[in-house]
Amino acid sequence: MRRTNPPVPYVPQGDLRKTIFNIYHDTAANGAHFGRDKTMYKIKQRYFWPSMYKDIDNYVKSGILCAQFNPRRQKTPGTLKPIQPPDGVWQLVAMDYHGPITPTTQRGNKYIISLTDVLSKFVITKAVRDNTTHTAVRFLKEGVISKFGTPRCILTDNGTHFTSTMMDELIKQIGTTHLYSTPYHPQTNGQVERYNSTMDAKIAALSNLRKTDWDDELPFVTFNYNTSIHSSTKQIPFEMMYGRSPVLPFDPQDTHVTLSYDPEHSKKLNQFLLRLNEQAKINIIKNQERYKQRYDVNRSNPTYKIGDLVLCKTLNIRHKFDIRYEGPFKIITQLTPKTFIIQHVKKSTLYRQVTTDVLRRPRENLRNKLKKKLHEHEFASRFPPFQPYHYQQYFINYNTSEQTLQHLIEAVKNSTSFTLDTESVCIPYQPNKPALIQLQVIQENLFSYVIMIEVCHLPHENTEKFQLIRELFGYLFDPNNDIYVWGSIDELDKFMEFHLFSSNQTYRSNNINSQDDFKKLVSAAPLGLKFPQNYWYDHHPHQLILSSTTNDTSCTCETCLIIQLNNPWSLQDAVGYLLNQWLDKRYTCSSFDIGLDPTLFHRNSNETEHRNIVATYAANDCLAIHQILVHTNVLNNEQQTRESSQQPELNVEDISSDDDNEQQHESLNEQRREPLTEEQRHKIHNRSCTLKQRKRYYRNEIIRRNIDRRFTIRNIKKILRQHQIKLYIINISTSSSDNSRSLYIGIRNESKLEEYRITIKSLFTTQHFNQFRNKQQRLTSSDKDDRYKHQHRHNPRENL
User: Fold this and answer.
1) Closest CA to 486 of 452, 521, 511
2) How crowded is residue 243: how many other Cβ atoms within 10 Å of its Cβ?
3) Residue 732 lies in a domain
4) What confidence score (pLDDT) does residue 652 get?
5) 466 pLDDT exceeds 90?
6) Phi-psi category of 770—alpha, beta or left, where left has phi over 0 and alpha has psi -120 to 50?
7) Please, are residues 311 and 338 in contact by the beta-carbon 8 Å criterion?
8) Are residues 134 and 278 in the same domain?
9) Domain CATH number, residue 368
10) What does the pLDDT read at residue 755?
11) What is the pTM for the complete model shown?
12) C-alpha dihedral (541, 542, 544, 547), degrees to nearest 10
């Protein structure tokens, strides 16, 4: 308990803290999505735990609703990126509509179309009735091109009056380049926007009381703007455009007109204009630098890269309660340092071209969560779920019997290939708590044992069970064994505290980092090469992407998959791109210390189901490494007898032959790398004979799937004999995914395989079991009657 007045309860680590966060931040009655400080004050008055400030801060920052609805109270992010001034006059002009203007003039005009030269600031304006494409094209032809010539580039916004086919045809005819500003970013075309604000004030001051004659005043406002010195260029736009000083209506003029000819007038004019242009460019750049310095003060400059998740500002907010930031979006293309193309995460057809000032980056922990969810969703929609090879699962804890431990020790002793992985429990701001060790004992025929060592539920160190577990690890870390790990064996260091093995044992073991081997930088110096090589690089070089109606080839090189050359591959990525399967990683942060063994505690159905899911997740890590090793030919599988794709996930229950000889699902390598004792050689010989016999038994095999679960092996053998089906061996397996049962029958006579297959097709269904049970009940009842009559016939006293 914390010393407060009054005392408040201590909240232990777990889901209870998340519940408190939800109550005092998310609910309407207690939280209402207020900020960190208000939420912190409410909780600390009622509860306490050591890291509560950091936990509350992270929880508030990770709320996507808060990020979408809270207003931005800082300056718009992104430093200023000035546009470089053009080299000369009429190289770049900006055009835009202004309006609608209220009131409409007596001539019906309510828009102003204007065109500004970016270097000289010379402006051309005209009052018009509408803002259609036809009006804009007519303005360019009659008001611009016919009087001033054709500009090299025209900059406009993305309005339909500038993006229509008619405008495109005109631009194509006159040979001009048409540039578009970034959508919802008027600063790109700021030259025209700045003039519009100046023009409005001057026209309003000159117009009549009703402001219905503003179109009469527009030419005079434009003329005075062009004949006045500009603050950016320190030049007069009229002078830069025509090469002479303007003569105003009330300027005194000489009454004598002199006509003279200067043969160098053209040369002097060009030099004069060139000097004006250079001075204007210098002044514009100086002015841009001063403005940029003021603009960038106390302004953040976020950087984004392809693949980042962002929120986009809602640009057409109609009501106070409308969402302020939409998303999340994913950046897919970067056009300029400040311009991006983004794609909505859920609505894949929604694209936008935006700049940094309308983007908002989610908080760091929220962004990481969204990235992981997006990556998980992409793999889940692209690949089928991961299907492991046959395996049988065991749990090691204080409830495991000594007989099971002896069986697992024999399996480890008789194998030389293993995969190993670990799981820990995440604790905020503290080292992760070790919880689980997954060990796969790889057998022949792609069969394996997956052993879950639950270190939080081990027996006491003084017990015989604990010594057997230590013995198992002793055989595992034999230097002659190959232990494949996706990462480093150092992850076992945190499990040393449980005294199951020593650091010397792990150091002496032959552990192989499969993650490094999958992407291992090979020294290319002997070959005279300058670049590193790795497995994926060698097998998946870069390819051109073809997109057509007939084919669609996607490149799977590391660059196109956005995997850096020096970064390791995640297991999920390797399974996805190599095996084309989805390895579910949604349970990475599960509580692996809760006891996954279903026999460890008495639980309800929901708890049992959750633990089965977590256990399957943990087992799939090892099983995925095994499949990668097989696919990359690290493990030799020439002796496999059945394709794994034809088999379900199996939990082997029993094997019975027609001679009632029980078989076990243990496999053993025929050769050991170390000297073997006579007893070990004998075991290996027997096991080898068993495997050869099993291979011969299953040479002619019939598989009957989805049989009724109530059929026992004895019933099945009895039914098959009644149908005169001669067999070697039968086996029943249960799928761990859907609990369906399959029957495997080894047939003696190959010539009758199809005949037996047709016969068995109608057997072992639910209807067949009901018929079989009724028949057995009738036979049992008949036997009882016969026994009763037999007893009465031989007991005459009872008859009396």
Assistant:
1) 511
2) 15
3) yes
4) 37
5) yes
6) alpha
7) no
8) yes
9) 2.30.30.140
10) 85
11) 0.42
12) 90
Residues 55 and 143 in one domain: no
Please give the structure tokens belonging to residue 190.
């700021």
Tokens, residue 536: 């994926």
Q: How far is CA 233 from CA 201, 226, 445, 599, in A?
A: 22, 12, 82, 84
Which pLDDT does position 217 carry in this prediction? 87
DSSP letters of 534-586?
A: -HHHHHS-----EESSS-EE---STTTTT--TTSPPPHHHHHHHHH--B---T
Q: 748 and 723 share a domain?
A: yes
**Residue 208 and residue 132 share a domain:** yes
Residue 471 lies in a domain: yes
**What is the distance between the alpha carbons of residues 40 and 27, in angstroms, rounded to a whole number?**
15
Q: What are the contacts of 721-727 at 24+ separation with CB within 8 A?
A: 723/759, 723/763, 725/756, 725/759, 725/760, 727/658
Which of 523, 545, 577 is the last residue in one of the domains?
A: 523
Q: Which of 330, 359, 380 is the last residue of a domain?
A: 380
Predicted pLDDT of residue 644: 41
Query: Residue 643: what pLDDT?
Result: 38
- Does one domain contain both 364 and 417? no
How large is the greatest C-alpha to C-alpha distance in the chain, in angstroms?
A: 167
> 17-33, pLDDT tens digit by residue?
888 888 888 787 777 77
Q: Mean pLDDT throughout 146-167?
A: 87
**Distance separating alpha carbons of residues 524 and 660, to the nearest angstrom:** 60
On whether both 131 and 162 belong to a single domain, the answer is yes
Q: Between 190-206 and 214-226, two packed helices, what is the crossing angle to 10 degrees?
A: 120
Q: Which residues contact 488 (CB under 8 A, 6 or more apart)?
A: 513
Helix locations, 503-543, DSSP H: 503-508, 514-518, 535-539
Task: Flag whether 745 is in a domain.
Answer: yes
pLDDT tens, residue by residue, 332-383:
888 877 788 888 887 878 888 888 777 776 655 555 666 777 778 888 888 8
Q: How far is CA 491 from the centre of its chain?
A: 25
**Cα–Cα distance list, 160 to 21, 182, 497, 528 (Å):** 49, 14, 71, 59
| 132 and 225, same domain (yes or no) | yes
Same domain for 358 and 428, yes or no, is no
Residue 617 neighbours by CB distance under 10 Å: 19
Strand positions, DSSP E, 37-110? 92-98
Q: Does residue 593 fall inside a structural domain?
A: no
Name the percent of the chain in helix, strand, coil, to the closest 5: 40, 20, 40
Does the pLDDT of residue 546 top 50, yes or no? no
The neighbouring-strand residues paired with 114 are: 96, 125
Count structural domains, the chain.
Answer: 5
**Structure-block tokens of residue 227:** 């004949």
Give the chain's end-to-end CA distance (angstroms, integer). 87
* Both structure tokens of 235: 């030049």
Q: Inform me whether the pLDDT recorded for 4 exceeds 60.
A: no
Collapsed DSSP state (helix, strand, coil) of residue 649: coil
Range of the domain at 227: 92-246+268-283
